Amino acid sequence: MKSHFLQVMLAIQSGLTIIKPLIFSIKSIVKYISTRGQASSLNFEEVTLAGLARDGGLYVPESWPTFSAPEIRNMRGLSYPELVVTVLRPFIGDCIDEPTLQAMAKRAYANFSHAAIAPIKQLDTNLYFMELFQGPTLAFKDFALQFLGQLFEHFLARRGEHCTIVGATSGDTGSAAIEAVRGIKGVELFMLHPDGRVSSVQRKQMTYVEDKNIHNLAIKGHFDDCQNLVKAMFNDTGFRDEMNLSAVNSINWARIAAQVVYYFRAALSLGGPDRPINVSVPTGNFGNIFAAYVAQQMGLPIEQFIIGSNQNDILTRFFSDGNMSQKAVEASLSPSMDIQISSNFERYLFEVSGRDAALITRLMDEFKQTGSFSVDANLLDKVKRQFSAFRMDDEQTRAEIARVYQETGEIIDPHSVIGIAAARACAKDPSIPVVCMGTADPAKFADAIEPAIGRKVPYPARLEKVLNAKEHFDVLENDLNAVQAYVRKKVEQAQNA
């Protein structure tokens, strides 16, 4: 990548005036490989439409693109859509031309309610809170899925194809995905959520939609059951090809890529690249925090990664002893984190192990068969040097919601507040600012918050029509054959309509 700093110096020497920041241009074919090493490499368009690799692995770039410090400095002052184009261009290569990509980025973030798109508030001397819930469904998933919807529409129209998107949600992914692809020609979306295990607001944000290409399925089970059904449909190659399956969950690389952008925004807002930051992220599926890791690989100065878990603490336990071991999923005040299979952790293990695809295949097979695996001491030591982890139960979560409200006046949802507590507990260097990622508007979890703060949580205007609308969803057993039959029937009906 040609340094923008050098471009500026050459311009100065030539007597030219720099009117506005230059957008970097990468003309190349970027390839993606599977974490399990047996699937064909794909370009960005192919990997976006494919979702899960055919060997069961997850796609990552063949090598990490990097920005120099001068190039990162030049990103200061860019609008959010401009930053999207700049950061994502190295991942996209020649798959989308520059004017089209710029237009897609503008459309993706046009319906966010705050002009800054991802505003940052200061909670304490060196503690910051990034509001990632200004999008149309009031959750951080909008950042990735609004852009992913643009990608699907563009690529499918260019190919003259249709696709069947299947996804699983523990709450917020579902509504964000639905909002992103509703009404798109050539797309049928099937979103699986655990019956009775998402908040009523989260469910209604999915099920109020009347567009004919949207299908909500309430599965009798928990989120991991939904996620396993989605993976099983992808691993059934006959069904996958027949339905032309694609994914909106964070197993889809394009979702991770889109999330990388707001970490650049956070660092730039606090003096990056000349000042490092730490990040604290409440996590269940490891996608949001992995996007921060990607940003670091691209040159962003992130010193420490902090994760927060609720009582479904499989990740926190792993960071303690190197053993990834499933337990029964417990319902909690933070349902989007009620997860015991963190899919994106496979991507991180692939990286920290030196991209050892054979090791990843063995560990993932062992986990599938036994519900657990362990890593050796050397690998665990590498992990601990990069990540810190923190756990909170429901009682502690309520207390932290009350504490933050009393001390700052901020009303924080029960997921994000775990990230705030984790930052306070785990930050190693008090001179480095910690940015906590706010994942959802508190109105989505008012029932959990109001007893803790002793007042009503204000509802954004865009929620009013959702809460009183008629719901549309079907309840299915946790049975692969039943779900596949449902999908096949709905797709056939859509094609014959």
Notes on the protein architecture:
- With 497 residues, the protein is an alpha/beta fold.
- It has a domain at 120-137 and 253-453: Rossmann fold.
- The chain is built from 21 helices and 15 strands.
- It has helices at residues 4-13, 44-50, 69-73, 80-92, 98-108, 141-159, 172-181, 200-207, 223-235, 237-243, 253-269, 287-297, 314-321, 345-352, 357-370, 377-386, 394-408, 416-426, 446-453, 461-467, 480-496, and strands at residues 32-34, 59-61, 120-124, 127-131, 163-168, 187-194, 214-219, 245-247, 277-282, 302-309, 323-325, 372-374, 387-391, 434-438, 474-476.
- The strands form four sheets. It has a six-stranded mixed sheet, sandwiched between helices. Strands 8-5-6-7-15 form a five-stranded parallel sheet, with helices on both faces. The chain has a two-stranded antiparallel ribbon with strand order 1-2.
- A hairpin with a 2-residue loop joins strand 3 (120-124) and strand 4 (127-131).
- Helix 7 runs parallel beside helix 8 (200-207) and helix 11 crosses helix 12 (287-297).
Features:
single chain; 497 residues; alpha/beta; Rossmann fold; six-stranded mixed sheet; five-stranded parallel sheet; 21 helices; 15 strands; 46% helix; globular
SSE topology sketch:
Layout: H1 4-13, E1 32-34, H2 44-50, E2 59-61, H3 69-73, H4 80-92, H5 98-108, E3 120-124, E4 127-131, H6 141-159, E5 163-168, H7 172-181, E6 187-194, H8 200-207, E7 214-219, H9 223-235, H10 237-243, E8 245-247, H11 253-269, E9 277-282, H12 287-297, E10 302-309, H13 314-321, E11 323-325, H14 345-352, H15 357-370, E12 372-374, H16 377-386, E13 387-391, H17 394-408, H18 416-426, E14 434-438, H19 446-453, H20 461-467, E15 474-476, H21 480-496
Parallel strand pairs: 4-14, 5-6, 5-8, 6-7, 7-15, 9-10, 9-14, 10-13
Antiparallel strand pairs: 1-2, 3-4, 11-12
